[in-house]
C-alpha cells in the first residue's frame, strides 16, 4: 500500500469516526428531548417517537387520561424501547 493510499484510508476512517460520534450525540439529544416531552405530555412524546398514530399512542393517551403517572411511565417505557 502506497503512502497516498494509506493517507486516504486514514482520512476515510477519521471521517467515519466523526460521523458516528455526531450520530450518537444526535440520538442522545433526541432521547433527552423526548423524555422532557414525555414528562409534559406523554401521548405526544409517544406519537413523536413512533411517527404515527398507532396502538401505543392510544394506550398512552388512555393511561394519561385515567391517571397521569401510568401514562408517564408507559411513555418512558416506549421511548426507551421496553414496550
Number of domains: 1
Question: How many H/I helical runs?
Answer: 4
Low-confidence runs: none
Profile the largest sheet. none
Number of DSSP E strands: 0
Shape: rod-shaped
Order of helices and strands: HHHH
Gyration radius from CA atoms, angstroms:
20 Å
- Helix-strand makeup class: mainly alpha
**Strand content range:** under 5%
> Distance between termini?
50 Å
Mean pLDDT: 88
Share of helix among residues?
Answer: over 70%
Q: In brief, what are we looking at here?
A:
The chain is mainly α and 83 residues long. It has one domain.
Question: Can you tag this structure with a few keywords?
Answer:
single chain, 83 residues, mainly alpha, 4 helices, 86% helix, 0% strand, YqaE/Pmp3 family membrane protein, transmembrane, transmembrane helix, membrane
Layout of strands and helices, then pairs:
Layout: H1 3-40, H2 42-50, H3 55-66, H4 68-79
Helix pairs in contact: 1-2, 1-4, 2-3, 2-4, 3-4
Amino acid at each position: 500500500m502506497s503512502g497516498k493510499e494509506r493517507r486516504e484510508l486514514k482520512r476515510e476512517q477519521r471521517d467515519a469516526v466523526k460521523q458516528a460520534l455526531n450520530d450518537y450525540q444526535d440520538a442522545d439529544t433526541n432521547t433527552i428531548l423526548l423524555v422532557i416531552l414525555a414528562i409534559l405530555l406523554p401521548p405526544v412524546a409517544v406519537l413523536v417517537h413512533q411517527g404515527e398514530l398507532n396502538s401505543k399512542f392510544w394506550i398512552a393517551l388512555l393511561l394519561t387520561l385515567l391517571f397521569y403517572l401510568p401514562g408517564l411511565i408507559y411513555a418512558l417505557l416506549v421511548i426507551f424501547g421496553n414496550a
